[in-house]
């Protein structure tokens, strides 16, 4: 299957993408991984992206699209892929459609993870990171440390990243609503959108997603 995964920040896209890709035996292609791989490998697109990023500018759509196209052309993506973080706007979605048409392919589904805005804020703003080891992550509600402000693993100080503050999270949501959310209507017009509630345990959400994707696949046949 060829799938685009969408949803607001804090919806659990990265977690679900990993599980879904494994269950479907297709590669998980994330924008972050694309950028890191191209920059570390010193590809021409990576050099272009790094130049924009170093200057504090947004990477143009054509560079991101070029990276995504190169990745989708790899042998392991021959039978499908799951795109996470791309496309981010309607112009990228149109470019993706054109790229797939040129390769005589099409998307099978656009999986929309639906989470109430207040829950998104609660999920992200409640995160606390260990200063000694950033791999140690806690949450004031869902996985609170035994001692407030202290890492259970190494005793390091727990803190809230600036990006996780409620004000920043709400700004990120505004960007999502303005730039990314319109692609849902774009794909809904093509009959591709499958929306599932993304609240609950990870495995419960994964099962909902797998069931919804199977239904979409059967309906398309």
TrEMBL record:
<feature type="binding site">
    <location>
        <position position="172"/>
    </location>
    <ligand>
        <name>AMP</name>
    </ligand>
</feature>
<feature type="binding site">
    <location>
        <begin position="137"/>
        <end position="138"/>
    </location>
    <ligand>
        <name>ATP</name>
    </ligand>
</feature>
<feature type="domain" description="Adenylate kinase active site lid">
    <location>
        <begin position="127"/>
        <end position="163"/>
    </location>
</feature>
<dbReference type="InterPro" id="IPR007862">
    <property type="entry name" value="Adenylate_kinase_lid-dom"/>
</dbReference>
<dbReference type="InterPro" id="IPR000850">
    <property type="entry name" value="Adenylat/UMP-CMP_kin"/>
</dbReference>
<feature type="binding site">
    <location>
        <position position="36"/>
    </location>
    <ligand>
        <name>AMP</name>
    </ligand>
</feature>
<keyword id="KW-0418">Kinase</keyword>
<feature type="binding site">
    <location>
        <begin position="57"/>
        <end position="59"/>
    </location>
    <ligand>
        <name>AMP</name>
    </ligand>
</feature>
<keyword id="KW-0067">ATP-binding</keyword>
<protein>
    <recommendedName>
        <fullName>Adenylate kinase</fullName>
        <ecNumber>2.7.4.3</ecNumber>
    </recommendedName>
</protein>
<feature type="region of interest" description="NMP">
    <location>
        <begin position="30"/>
        <end position="59"/>
    </location>
</feature>
<keyword id="KW-0808">Transferase</keyword>
<comment type="subunit">
    <text>Monomer.</text>
</comment>
<feature type="binding site">
    <location>
        <position position="200"/>
    </location>
    <ligand>
        <name>ATP</name>
    </ligand>
</feature>
<dbReference type="InterPro" id="IPR027417">
    <property type="entry name" value="P-loop_NTPase"/>
</dbReference>
<dbReference type="GO" id="GO:0004017">
    <property type="term" value="F:AMP kinase activity"/>
</dbReference>
<comment type="similarity">
    <text>Belongs to the adenylate kinase family.</text>
</comment>
<keyword id="KW-0545">Nucleotide biosynthesis</keyword>
<feature type="binding site">
    <location>
        <begin position="10"/>
        <end position="15"/>
    </location>
    <ligand>
        <name>ATP</name>
    </ligand>
</feature>
<dbReference type="InterPro" id="IPR033690">
    <property type="entry name" value="Adenylat_kinase_CS"/>
</dbReference>
<dbReference type="Pfam" id="PF00406">
    <property type="entry name" value="ADK"/>
</dbReference>
<feature type="binding site">
    <location>
        <position position="92"/>
    </location>
    <ligand>
        <name>AMP</name>
    </ligand>
</feature>
<feature type="binding site">
    <location>
        <position position="161"/>
    </location>
    <ligand>
        <name>AMP</name>
    </ligand>
</feature>
<feature type="binding site">
    <location>
        <position position="31"/>
    </location>
    <ligand>
        <name>AMP</name>
    </ligand>
</feature>
<keyword id="KW-0963">Cytoplasm</keyword>
<dbReference type="Pfam" id="PF05191">
    <property type="entry name" value="ADK_lid"/>
</dbReference>
<dbReference type="InterPro" id="IPR036193">
    <property type="entry name" value="ADK_active_lid_dom_sf"/>
</dbReference>
<feature type="binding site">
    <location>
        <begin position="85"/>
        <end position="88"/>
    </location>
    <ligand>
        <name>AMP</name>
    </ligand>
</feature>
<keyword id="KW-0547">Nucleotide-binding</keyword>
<comment type="function">
    <text>Catalyzes the reversible transfer of the terminal phosphate group between ATP and AMP. Plays an important role in cellular energy homeostasis and in adenine nucleotide metabolism.</text>
</comment>
<dbReference type="InterPro" id="IPR006259">
    <property type="entry name" value="Adenyl_kin_sub"/>
</dbReference>
<feature type="binding site">
    <location>
        <position position="127"/>
    </location>
    <ligand>
        <name>ATP</name>
    </ligand>
</feature>
<comment type="pathway">
    <text>Purine metabolism; AMP biosynthesis via salvage pathway; AMP from ADP: step 1/1.</text>
</comment>
